[in-house]
Amino acid sequence: MGAKPWVLVSGVVVAVVMLVGGCSSSSSGSASSGVTGAETTTTVSASASPQLSEDDPLNVNSTKDLSTVTATIDGEHSPYADSLPNICPRFPDSALIKAGLDPQMGRNPLSGKTTGLLQSCSLAASDPSGREFQLWSVAVGITSQNIRQIIDQSQIHVIRSNVSIGPHSAYMFHSDGDGPLECSVAWGTFFGSVMIDFNGEEWDPIDPCAKVVDVAKVLYPYIPARPSEMR
Description:
The chain is 10% helix and 32% strand. By secondary structure, it is mainly beta. A hairpin with a 2-residue loop joins strand 9 and strand 10 (168-175). The longest helix is centred in the last third of the chain and has 12 residues, at 208-219. The radius of gyration is 17 Å and the shape is globular.
């Protein structure tokens, strides 16, 4: 089943990815995946030999930089589904400030360590005038769901593809129910997907899609790029 991947909770944007039904299985009953690299796609198995190569995104001990690898394994069967790290501490104050966010407003995880499919961190920009609590907020989410499981939901409306965010090619989209100051980007990773949602406030008109890309370009280097970082 598909569902809107972002909801607003107590005025703060929190990323929420609902489970997507369906999975693929090999003849032995183990989940199998396609892994897309820069130009080729190969098929690997989640229950393959324990001696997986460093280039295999299913090798959770690999120290190889897999920034340009996009996994297509069903998120529920990913080896990372139950081991997504709390990403809030990964963002240093310097990066948040560069992105226009206020470290003093806190890093608010959906939970200290999510045990299934999603880990999210909500962050906010303060109002320098002091008149309002915040000017805008973002939710940065990592999920074991692959990018197609996110983008192919019926309520997701892609408005731009191939958005360059570092080595990644992202999708920019709106979701059913979004307001005029909301916009999201998402891209595939070796462990699943990254999603960043922007939510603006009416007292500070801003281009939400331009802003979410700006934020993504600052924060993407702090998202795990190696399987060994998923701890």
